[in-house]
Amino acid sequence: MTVCATIFPWIGLEARNRHIRRWSRSLLAIFNVTVELAPDSAPPLEHAMIVANHVSWLDIFVVDALYPCRFVAKAEIRSWPLAGWLAEKAGTVFISRGSKRDLRNIFKGLVHSLQAGERVAFFPEGTTAPQGTLLPFHANLFEAAVDAKVMVQPLALSYADAAGGHHPDVDFIGETTFAESVLAILRGPPVRARLRFLPAMDATGAHRRDLAQAAHDAVSAGLGIAAEPGGLRAQR
After folding, report:
1. Where does the Phospholipid/glycerol acyltransferase domain start and stop, copy by copy (predicted)?
2. Which residue among 34, 156, 162, 177 is the one 20 to 30 A from 188 at the CA level?
């Protein structure tokens, strides 16, 4: 917290990313979470829009522990004790559900960040989903990658227990509160988080809905889930 308040305003992107990587690893260590890159993972791109499935509040810190990104996340995360504050200081952009003004402003900011060479990430499901499922993707923010003419790289996130199955305490869904989720993970068995980066796709000249569908199909395959037809949310 001291680093964020006193050092971040004066240092560059690489230095900030080193701090973000270090504190993300420290936070995960407290929760007995280890992070690994899947052996069959594609090489993570330094400059791209990363799109991932969304399982838990841990997701941002799991990705940042290896490859710090500027995230887009729902506004509720900002109110979470410590985790929300750290996510904000790490550069996370928060969006309010149903706010067209928020979407327009964030869209412009994402294009600028991508054009500046940053790695940007978001969760196109728009909310968390139980492991073993993948909700339809929202296509709107994929337009930022199209405008910035950058690569889109899908990412499959999973959390395993000692036996290699879905970890029973990580899912953050339904009426579960942040405090309840924190206690469940702290009291539960060790967590093994796995990142599987998938082959990137060029957004230049593409349509956002085509990109979103291709990303949905890729993440489905990366998670070992059968892709369902029409993996997109209706657009207004």
Report:
1. 48-160
2. 156
